Amino acid sequence: LDPQLWHACAGGMAQIPPLNSNVYYFPQGHVEHAAKNVDFRSFPRISPLVPCRVASIRYLADAGTDEVYARIGLVPLRGGECEVDDGVGLLEFDWNGEEKEKEKEKPNSFAKTLTQSDANNGGGFSVPRYCAETIFPRLDYTAEPPVQTILAKDVHGEVWKFRHIYRGTPRRHLLTTGWSNFVNQKKLLAGDSIVFLRSENGELCVGIRRAKLGIGGGPEVSSGWNVGATS
Amino acid sequence: LDPQLWHACAGGMAQIPPLNSNVYYFPQGHVEHAAKNVDFRSFPRISPLVPCRVASIRYLADAGTDEVYARIGLVPLRGGECEVDDGVGLLEFDWNGEEKEKEKEKPNSFAKTLTQSDANNGGGFSVPRYCAETIFPRLDYTAEPPVQTILAKDVHGEVWKFRHIYRGTPRRHLLTTGWSNFVNQKKLLAGDSIVFLRSENGELCVGIRRAKLGIGGGPEVSSGWNVGATS
DNA sequence: TTGTCGGCCGATCGCCGACAA
DNA sequence: TTGTCGGCGATCGGCCGACAA
């Protein structure tokens, strides 16, 4: 999976530490993410934070939901080499809420949260002008109406086809034919987000972010780690 | 699962030995049914047929495909008690091909292989007259046209609703509303069979037989059991 | 008796501009 | 600029009798 598309899908709040950098590994956070109701009192000898070196990073996407995640290989560090590089050790996703795209100069991706009209069966997708003009291929505005076919690769490399038209009064950009099929196949709902990315080789890519995550995301879980402080 | 419906779905070719009867267990046939390419040369000590007593029988149906199967508990017999009751020891299914319903006096089930028109999307189901008159609830032929609602339980106990009408010139029995939904939900194809059964308590039941079995059914597999004879 | 076909009618899909937030 | 709505034409699902195997 292209790291560029991966980061566009994950959003700016998801930070991945550089390869070979030194980070802290938090077993509690890891286990709370992976499973519920693990009782750490059974493992009293585990250190709450473990200095590690980032040995490998794999950018992945769930085959069913398209949700992106990373598999990071960590090697524990021995005694003296415990200097951690920066404060970005904790892998945490928190891209919910309206995202402010604070890209530097060349924003090559755009995310939009689907409205009811976007997700409604039988409807089209209202393309924000900024997205159509900076991310999509150039449209021939001299035609009447201006129309083109958009091809976009998803995180699995599958290509999706959309009809992109500029019409209506006032004029606006819309995705029509192909859109409802995409919504149905990906099981998108109002509130989910769609990401368009123009990759470095000029290819258009498409990713999604679910409003409701496939796993986890529930209310806080007590792992028994700090029960002494709360009881 | 009702054994009556089970046998109607399995067809007359599927024989199940009586409880507590004595049978031969064939490990080779069993393993060839369960897995492919098991090399029996690794287990040269296994006897090719094992006298057993039938300790339990469970009539089951696959949750996904509705295909019926039986789980038979066998207890190996010691030395002297090896008298096998009859020749029905090998559990084998072979219901393919047009089945001849050679029921004795009270045929309470009927099977039909779906035609292209039956399975075609948007079409109905042409009910053979014999099935409509002997299995279905009595239809009021004085109405114009004669119509009734059919309720039928499948192997999971789920109830399906069909509109049964007697119309056309010449007159014939048809299932219309509800039929295409049944075909789609069960993923039926032309060549598959449908079984209607009137159970002892008068309930109507419906089962299916797939033309292509969910598992197995492929070409012959060499298990290495008799390699000496073939090489 | 029953399998297949074309007709036909109603429901749904999906593209459209109007309008307003 | 863009979200939602009603309109409406095209398509599809599904019920029908005609006809023939």
From TrEMBL, chains A, B:
Subcellular location: Nucleus
Location of the TF-B3 domain: 110-212
Described purpose of this protein according to its UniProt entry: Auxin response factors (ARFs) are transcriptional factors that bind specifically to the DNA sequence 5'-TGTCTC-3' found in the auxin-responsive promoter elements (AuxREs). Could act as transcriptional activator or repressor. Formation of heterodimers with Aux/IAA proteins may alter their ability to modulate early auxin response genes expression.
Quaternary structure note: Homodimers and heterodimers.
UniProt similarity note: Belongs to the ARF family.
Protein name: Auxin response factor
Lineage: Eukaryota, Viridiplantae, Streptophyta, Embryophyta, Tracheophyta
Residues of the full protein shown: 19 to 249 of 591
